[in-house]
Amino acid sequence: MPVAGWYANPDNAEQLRWWDGTKWTDAVSDAQHPGAAPAPAPAPATATASDPTPQTDSRGFFSRMMGVKSDAAKAAAVTYNGLLASVVDGSADPATFPAAIEAARSEAEISVKQDRSSRIETARALVDRVLADDYLSEDEDQEIFGSMEMMGLEPELFEGTLTDVSKSILIARANAGRLSPIDDSQMVAKAGEVVYLDVAAQMLKEVTIRQYKGGYGGVSFRVAKGVRFNTGAVRGKMVPVGTEIQVIDTGLLCISNKRAVFLGDKKTQEFSYDKLLGMKLFSDAITLQVSNRQNATTLGTTSPDLIAAYINAASQEHI
Question: In whole numbers, what is the pLDDT of the chain averaged over residues?
């Protein structure tokens, strides 16, 4: 903790303010530099320092503790933010960026942790700008991953911190007709068939909930004092009172250049593109309608938009 004395006022750069060794006091001075006139105001009664001469924060400890940055640090922060902005707008120079951003970070007193967080958010902003039209060309793909490398961000981030960004990239690639085959699909491909996506899915079914409702349908009459005879019967029936969605099977939905196939624990269901009539998207499911099946099939999934984009792109190839 700094000793009692006069330091730069964090609320007014043109003043000095008295620090009593534990906290700021209300005493201020118009003197901006040690020895400058007028003389500093006397220290408050609580101050114990014998020498009221304005002191300098030579090691920078006090300024860092109070969050006060020098003019040079503030200027470096502006440079730092400008460099990150150049990544987003695509004007950054890969040859000079790494050294320039590190120098600005250091001079601006930005921690390594804060710097990494800022670079990750910059990557997000870059992807948002590139994917504004929901299409991703090869050149735009290279811009994204080249900028990630320039900022020192590893591609593995797309499997963790940037998972949502990764999904947006895959959808934009599919919208542009750029599907990449996978080698480890659970589906056994036919001759000439290429699999592009395996995604977890649940087969769903809408079930009607029924409830029994009934009443007495006969007559009652007296045969003696205190004795009655009942005839007829209780008449009732099951009536629908609502519906609910139930999971009837769990497995994978595999998408190839010829078909989509649900591989469930209990059953397998195929959706050939030449029989596909339509798709309906929900926030957590997708419904597929094919001409050779009377009822549509609804599959629960965390990525209905990704599935729709892949099926749309793959079915266009099939045509």
Answer: 83
**What are the phi and psi torsion angles at 246 (to 5°)?**
-120, 145
Tokens of 218: 């006969």
Query: Do residues 17 and 4 lie in contact, with contact meaning Cβ atoms separated by under 8 Å?
Result: no
Q: Which domains does the chain have, with CATH numbers?
A: 73-175 (no CATH), 195-211+241-318 (2.30.29.30)
Q: If you search the block for the tokens 């020498």, which residue do you land on?
A: 51
Could you report the per-residue pLDDT of 104-116, keeping only the tens digit for each? 999 999 999 999 9
Confidence at 48, pLDDT banded by 50, 70, 90: very low
Eight-state DSSP code of residue 272: E
**Helix H or strand E encompassing 194:** none
pLDDT band for position 39 (50/70/90)? very low
Q: Starting from the edge strand earliest in sequence, which strands make up the sheet with 16-19, in order?
A: 5-8, 16-19, 24-29
Question: What is the predicted pLDDT for the residue at 45?
Answer: 47
Q: What's the CA gap between 1 and 111, in Å, rounded?
A: 21
Rounded to whole angstroms, the Cα distance separating 193 from 204 reads 27
State the Cα–Cα distance between residues 40 and 30, nearest whole angstrom. 7
φ, ψ (nearest 5 deg) of residue 159? -100, 0
What's the pLDDT score for residue 35? 40
In 10 A of CB 107, how many CB atoms?
17
How confident is the model over 87-134, as pLDDT tens digits?
A: 999 999 999 999 999 999 999 999 999 999 999 999 999 999 999 999
Closest CA to 120 of 77, 152, 75: 152
| Under 8 Å between Cβ of 290 and 299 | no
CA distance 157 to 4: 48
Would you say residue 34 has pLDDT above 50? no
Whether the predicted model's global pTM rises above the 0.85 cut: no
195: nearest Cα among 184, 206, 210: 184
